[in-house]
Amino acid sequence: MKHDAFLMKDLLIENESKIIMLVLDGVGDIHTPESPRTSLELASTPNLDALARVSVLGRHMPISMGITPGSGPAHLALFGYNPTRKEYDAGRGVLESLGIDFDLLPSDVAIRGNFASRDASGFLTDRRAGRIPTSECDRLCGMLQEKVGVLDGVEIIVRPVKDYRFALILRGEGLSPLICETDPQKTGLKPVPPTALDPEASKTEVLLQKLVETYNKILADEPRANTVLLRGISRLPTLESMWSRFGLRPAAIATYPLYRGVAKLVGMELMPMVDTIEEEFRILQENFAGPHNFFFIHIKRTDSYGEDGNQKGKIEVIEEVDRYIPVLRDLNPAVLMVTGDHSTPHVMKSHSWHPVPFMLHGPFCDLDGTEAFNETECDRGRLGIFPTVQIMPLALASAGRLLKFGA
Amino acid sequence: MKHDAFLMKDLLIENESKIIMLVLDGVGDIHTPESPRTSLELASTPNLDALARVSVLGRHMPISMGITPGSGPAHLALFGYNPTRKEYDAGRGVLESLGIDFDLLPSDVAIRGNFASRDASGFLTDRRAGRIPTSECDRLCGMLQEKVGVLDGVEIIVRPVKDYRFALILRGEGLSPLICETDPQKTGLKPVPPTALDPEASKTEVLLQKLVETYNKILADEPRANTVLLRGISRLPTLESMWSRFGLRPAAIATYPLYRGVAKLVGMELMPMVDTIEEEFRILQENFAGPHNFFFIHIKRTDSYGEDGNQKGKIEVIEEVDRYIPVLRDLNPAVLMVTGDHSTPHVMKSHSWHPVPFMLHGPFCDLDGTEAFNETECDRGRLGIFPTVQIMPLALASAGRLLKFGA
Question: Do B353 and A394 touch (CB under 8 A)?
Answer without folding.
Answer: yes
